[in-house]
C-alpha cells in the first residue's frame, strides 16, 4: 500500500489539473489542526501567483471537483485559501480492511529494488561490550529492520575492530605473562595450536594492557610493533584463538539485546583488498607521501574549515581505520554492488567519514549512484548531563546494564497490579530490554539524551513498558472474546469519535514509516507506536467492547482491536522490541 497522503495527492493533483492548473500544486499533507480537518493542501497559494487569481477562488474550484470523490467526505476552503480535507467514514473502513489484508500492514514499500548495507555495532574484539556500544547496536538494528519492513534488501555488518592496536596490546600482555608459549616464537606456524583462552582471561588482560600502555611508552611501542607484526602475518594462530573467544562472547551479549548481524566481518576481512586499494590510488595519482606516511588529499575549494588528508598508510606501513574502511568498500562493491551504504557511528566521527567518502568518490571505489551516508548518533548521558558512568566513575559493561534493567523490571512487575503470574523472569527480560531500547530510540538518533531507568520502566507516558502493556491489554480482550489477532475488520459504519480517531491513527502509521526511512530515524516509529497506544487507550475507555450488546458493533470493535495489536507488534518488531503475552 501507498501512504495515504500519496494517494490523496494523486486525487487532488488530478482535481487541480481538471480545473486548468498545474497538477504539481496538489500536494497533500497531514493536517496541523485535526479539530478542523484530517488533511490539507496549500497549493492554492502558489497557484494564485502563477495564474493571478485569489487563492480562495482556486481552492474553491478544486474543492468542487473533490466533492465527487468517493474517498473524500468533505473538501472545504478556509480563508485565505487553505483546502481542508476529511475522509468519508466508509473510506476509512475500506482502508482498514485493505491494511488488514496487506501482508505489510500498510507499510509503504520501495518503488524499486534496492540493496543497502548498514555498518553498525563496531565493537573492538578482546574486550567486553560496554554501554558505549549500546546506541550503535540498537539504532543500527532498528534502521536495518525499518529498511527491510519497507521492502529493501538489507545486510547488517558488525564491522569489528579486530586488526588494530587493541589486539597488539593483548598480544603484548599475554607475551609478557607467558613468554614461554610456543606461539610467540618467530617461526611458529600459522596453523599451530595455541593455549586455550576464555573470556575471563581477555576481560582481565585487555584493561591491564591498556592501562600500562598509557603509563609506559616502551610498553606502548612494543604493542604497536606487535600490531604491525600481526598485520604482516605473525601471530595468526593466537589471533584466531582471541577471535574465537571474543566473537562467541559478542554474540551472547548482542543476542540478549535482540541485535543480530548478517555479516560478522572485521577489519581483518578487508586486508586482502588493501593491495587493490593501493593499486587504485596509485594508478589514479591520488596517493602521495607526507612525513613518511602515504595519504590522499581530499580538501576542496568549498571547504570552510581545514580538511586534513586521509592517511592510508602510517610511516611504519601499518593500516588505520581509513585504510580498512576504504578496503571494505571495495569488498562491499564486489560482493553486493549496494545502492546505499550507511554507517551508524558516534557523531564525533563525522570528519573521518567525510574524508573516507571523499576519497572513495575520487578513487571510484563504489558506483556513481551509490549513496554513502554517515548516520551519527549522540551520547547517552547520566543525570548530571555527562556521559553515563557507574557509581565509581567507570564505564559500565553492557551485560551489567541489561542485568540491572531486568532486576528493575522484575521488581516493578512484582509490585504491580498488572502481574498475572506469567513467567516473571522472561517477562522482566523483555520489559527491561524494551525500556532501554525505547528510552533510547524515542530520541532522534543525532540527539544526546538522559538515561533514566525509573522513567523508562513507567507504565505511563512514552515508554516501551506502556506499549507492551497496551499489547497485553488487547491480548486480554481478544482472549476473553475467544478471538485471535486475525479477527477481520468487519465494520459497517463508524460508531464513535474515538473509533474514528483510532482508524485514522492506524492509517497515518504508513506516513511514519515513510518519514522514518527517509530520515533514517527510528524515533518516528516510536512516536507512531505511542500514538497508536494512546488512541487505543481512548477507544478502550470510551467503549465497552466486551459487554456491547449490539453484535455487529462488538464484532467491528474486536476487529479494530485485532488490527491495532498487529500493527503495534509490527512497530515494536521494527524497533527490535519483543512483545509479551501478558504482564
Biggest sheet record: 4 strands, antiparallel
Q: How many distinct helices? A: 19
Amount of helix:
40-55%
Strand residues, percent? 5-15%
* Gross geometry: globular
Structural class, judged by helices and strands?
Answer: alpha/beta
Describe the structure.
It is a single chain. With 583 residues, this protein is an alpha/beta fold. The chain has 3 domains: 84 residues, Gyrase A, domain 2 (2-Layer Sandwich), CATH 3.30.1360; 221 residues, Rossmann fold (3-Layer(aba) Sandwich), CATH 3.40.50.620; 177 residues, Isoleucyl-tRNA Synthetase, Domain 1 (Orthogonal Bundle), CATH 1.10.730. Helices cover 51% and strands 10% of the residues. It has 19 helices and 13 strands. It has a 4-stranded antiparallel beta sheet with strand order 1-2-4-3. Helix 1 packs across helix 3 and helix 16 packs antiparallel against helix 19. The radius of gyration is 28 Å and the shape is globular. 43% of the residues are buried. The model has no long low-confidence stretch (mean pLDDT 94).
Amino acid at each position: 500500500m501507498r501512504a495515504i497522503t500519496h494517494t490523496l495527492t494523486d486525487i487532488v493533483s488530478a482535481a487541480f489539473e481538471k480545473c486548468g492548473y498545474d497538477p504539481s500544486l496538489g500536494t497533500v499533507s497531514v493536517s496541523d489542526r485535526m479539530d478542523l480537518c484530517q488533511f490539507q493542501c496549500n497549493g492554492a497559494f502558489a497557484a494564485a501567483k502563477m495564474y493571478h487569481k485569489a487563492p480562495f477562488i482556486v481552492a474553491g474550484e478544486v474543492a468542487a471537483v473533490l466533492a465527487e470523490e468517493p474517498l473524500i467526505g468533505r473538501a472545504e476552503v478556509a480563508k485565505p485559501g487553505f483546502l481542508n480535507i476529511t475522509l468519508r467514514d466508509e473510506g476509512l473502513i475500506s482502508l482498514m480492511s485493505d491494511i488488514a489484508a496487506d501482508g505489510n500492514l500498510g507499510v509503504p514499500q520501495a518503488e524499486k529494488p534496492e540493496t543497502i548495507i548498514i555498518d553498525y555495532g563496531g565493537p573492538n574484539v578482546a574486550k567486553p561490550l560496554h554501554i558505549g556500544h549500546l546506541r550503535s547496536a540498537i539504532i543500527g538494528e532498528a534502521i536495518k529492520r525499518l529498511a527491510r519492513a519497507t521492502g529493501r534488501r538489507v545486510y547488517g555488518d558488525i564491522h569489528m575492530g579486530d586488526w588494530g592496536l587493541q589486539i597488539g596490546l593483548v598480544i603484548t600482555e599475554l607475551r609478557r605473562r607467558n613468554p614461554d608459549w610456543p606461539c610467540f616464537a618467530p617461526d611458529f606456524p600459522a596453523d599451530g595450536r595455541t593455549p586455550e583462552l576464555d573470556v575471563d582471561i581477555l576481560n582481565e588482560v585487555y584493561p591491564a594492557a591498556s592501562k600500562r600502555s598509557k603509563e609506559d611508552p616502551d610498553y606502548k611501542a612494543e604493542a604497536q610493533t606487535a600490531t604491525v607484526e600481526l598485520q604482516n602475518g605473525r601471530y595468526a594462530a593466537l589471533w584466531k584463538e582471541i577471535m574465537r573467544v571474543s566473537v562467541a562472547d559478542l554474540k551472547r551479549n548482542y543476542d540478549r539485546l535482540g541485535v543480530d548481524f548478517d555479516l560478522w566481518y572485521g577489519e581483518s576481512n578487508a586486508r586482502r583488498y588493501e593491495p587493490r586499494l593501493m593499486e587504485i590510488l596509485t594508478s589514479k595519482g591520488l596517493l602521495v607521501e607526507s612525513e613518511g606516511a602515504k595519504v590522499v588529499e581530499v580538501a576542496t575549494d568549498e571547504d570552510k574549515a581545514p580538511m586534513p588528508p586521509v592517511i592510508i598508510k602510517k610511516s611504519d606501513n601499518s593500516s588505520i581505520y581509513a585504510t580498512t574502511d576504504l578496503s571494505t568498500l571495495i569488498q562491499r562493491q564486489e560482493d553486493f554492488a549496494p545502492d546505499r551504504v550507511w554507517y551508524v557511528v558516534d557523531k564525533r566521527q563525522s570528519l573521518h567519514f567525510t574524508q573516507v567518502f571523499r576519497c572513495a568518490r575520487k578513487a571510484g571505489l563504489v558506483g556513481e549512484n551509490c549513496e554513502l551516508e554517515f548516520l551519527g548518533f549522540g551520547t547517552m548521558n547520566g543525570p548530571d548531563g555527562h556521559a553515563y558512568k557507574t557509581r565509581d566513575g567507570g564505564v559500565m559493561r553492557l551485560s551489567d546494564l541489561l542485568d540491572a534493567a531486568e532486576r528493575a523490571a522484575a521488581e516493578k512487575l512484582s509490585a504491580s497490579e498488572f502481574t498475572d503470574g506469567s513467567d516473571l523472569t522472561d517477562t522482566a527480560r523483555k520489559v527491561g530490554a524494551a525500556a532501554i531500547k525505547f528510552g533510547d530510540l524515542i530520541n532522534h538518533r543525532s540527539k544526546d539524551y538522559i538515561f533514566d531507568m525509573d522513567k523508562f520502566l513507567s507504565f505511563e507516558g512514552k515508554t516501551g513498558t506502556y506499549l507492551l502493556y497496551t499489547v497485553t491489554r488487547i491480548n486480554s480482550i481478544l482472549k476473553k472474546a475467544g478471538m485471535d489477532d486475525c479477527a477481520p475488520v468487519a465494520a459497517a459504519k463508524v460508531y464513535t469519535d474515538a473509533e474514528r480517531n483510532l482508524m485514522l491513527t492506524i492509517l497515518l502509521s504508513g506516513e511514519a514509516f515513510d518519514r522514518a526511512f527517509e530520515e533514517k530515524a527510528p524515533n518516528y516509529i516510536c512516536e507512531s507506536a505511542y500514538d497508536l497506544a494512546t488512541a487505543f487507550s481512548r477507544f478502550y475507555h470510551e467503549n465497552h467492547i466486551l459487554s456491547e450488546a449490539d453484535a455487529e458493533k462488538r464484532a467491528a470493535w474486536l476487529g479494530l482491536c485485532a488490527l491495532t495489536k498487529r500493527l503495534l507488534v509490527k512497530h515494536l518488531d521494527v524497533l527490535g522490541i519483543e512483545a509479551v503475552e501478558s504482564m
